[in-house]
Amino acid sequence: MLDAHSLVMKWQRWPPHLLLIPIALQLLQQLS
């Protein structure tokens, strides 16, 4: 179980969208 606070702090240090964008695109392609 990840700690939400520590997770948010990590996300503020580096841009998570760089990894989330390709993952989201793959999920959309699988769902469609």
User: Roughly what is the average pLDDT, rounded to an integer?
Assistant: 80
Structural class: mainly alpha
- Write the H/E string, N to C: HH
Q: Give the number of helices.
A: 2
Largest sheet: none
What general outline do the C-alpha atoms trace? elongated
Number of domains: 1
Strand content: under 5%
How many beta strands in the DSSP annotation? Answer: 0
The low-confidence parts are none
Radius of gyration: 12 Å
How would you characterize the overall build of this protein?
The chain is 78% helix and 0% strand. With 32 residues, it is mainly α. The protein has one domain. It is elongated, with a radius of gyration of 12 Å.
Task: Please write out the topology.
Layout: H1 4-13, H2 17-31
What's the short version?
This protein is an all-alpha fold. Helix content is 78%, strand content 0%.
Task: Write out key terms for the chains shown.
single chain; mainly alpha; elongated; 2 helices; 32 residues
